[in-house]
Specification:
The chain is α/β, with parallel strands linked by helices. The chain is built from nine helices and six strands; from the N terminus they run ααβββαβββαααααα. A hairpin with a 6-residue loop joins β5 and β6.
Length: 316
């Protein structure tokens, strides 16, 4: 029988992939293992706050459409001081992702308004979004993987409001090797990016909390039903990767064909072929430097921001 995508079983390693729905929920989403989530959050908030306990809130269909559930895995928890933590794994790039993040997080402030009470002094509990991203923001430095966002006074940088916070983790930008890891936060991110590839537990992760993490993540410890759920989650991730890869290849081909036709007519954005090639090389070098934003590169090279984005897409 000819194999199709539906009857090919994904390659399964020794440990589960935490960047799947099943893996994310198994590690961070169960009451008996909430010490893992508490440990992870305390590393993120180090020096800012200490989380002693968490209560998992009932899950709702928070996505505006069903298809979001295939790309967004989220948990909502309440801390011992009444604060809300939204922990979200975003697997696929989405238009207006930051708009959605701010809207969704701010809505948790709005929900705190009392129903039916005449008097209220507007005192709110803190709300935080922690978004683990398996993709990149458009304008970001290659080595920048941690973004802490708050409401601050523009000129002084002083915090204006401290009860609404967003933390974005760009996992593709975390490229610290095992020998260079120094902090527990770096250990957590190293695990999230690489655990499904490990055949043994790295020496730097021989801590009690990580020992527990690897124990519950061992594929051989899964029950039959859990194993089937994990296979399905892997297939969904595999399918999403195939769709993204196909779309990228089609885009690259369309750009290449359009550029060739324009070059044949000598009108690549109104410049001659040689000048266009020179602009392309300049933009490529500026992108490789990893020090400039897309608008800055466009200004330096004298091209449009769309031109820079197209060059960036072709380099990936």
């Amino acid at each position: 029988m000819t194999n199709t995508l539906r009857n090919i079983v994904p390659s399964i390693g020794r440990f589960i992939d935490p960047l799947t729905d099943f893996g994310f929920k198994r590690i961070f989403g169960s009451e008996p293992n909430k010490d893992l989530l508490i440990a992870f959050l305390n590393e993120l908030f180090k020096g800012r706050k200490v989380i002693k306990d968490l209560v998992y809130n009932p899950q709702e269909n928070n996505g505006p459409a069903k298809h979001y559930r295939k790309t967004i895995f989220d948990l909502t928890c309440t801390g011992d001081d009444g604060e809300t933590f939204i922990i979200e794994m975003q697997r696929a790039e989405q238009h207006f992702f930051t708009d959605r993040a701010v809207f969704y997080t701010a809505s948790k402030l709005h929900e705190q308004g009392p129903k039916g009470k005449k008097d209220w002094d507007y005192k709110l509990k803190e709300v935080y979004l922690i978004a683990l991203m398996d993709f990149n923001f458009d304008a970001t430095l290659p080595e920048k993987y941690l973004h802490r966002v708050r409401l601050a006074e523009e000129e002084t940088g002083q915090t204006f409001y401290n009860k609404l916070g967003l933390i974005f983790l760009e996992l593709p930008n975390f490229n610290i090797g095992e020998k260079d890891i120094k902090t527990d936060l770096e250990r957590w991110l190293y695990v999230l990016r690489n655990m499904s590839k490990f055949q043994k537990i790295p020496v730097i992760l021989h801590k009690r909390i990580f020992q527990k993490l690897f124990h519950i993540s061992e594929v051989s410890n899964l029950k039959k039903e859990e194993h089937m759920l994990y296979e399905r989650a892997l297939m969904e991730k595999w399918d999403a990767y195939a769709v993204k890869k196909t779309a990228k290849e089609k885009l690259e081909k369309a750009i290449e064909e359009a550029t060739e036709k324009a070059m044949e007519k000598g009108i690549v954005r109104g410049i001659e072929k040689g000048a266009a090639q020179k602009s392309y090389e300049v933009v490529k070098r500026l992108l490789s430097a990893g020090k400039f934003t897309i608008p800055e590169i466009a200004g330096f090279a004298g091209v449009s921001e769309d031109f820079v984005r197209n060059v960036k897409k072709r380099r990936k």
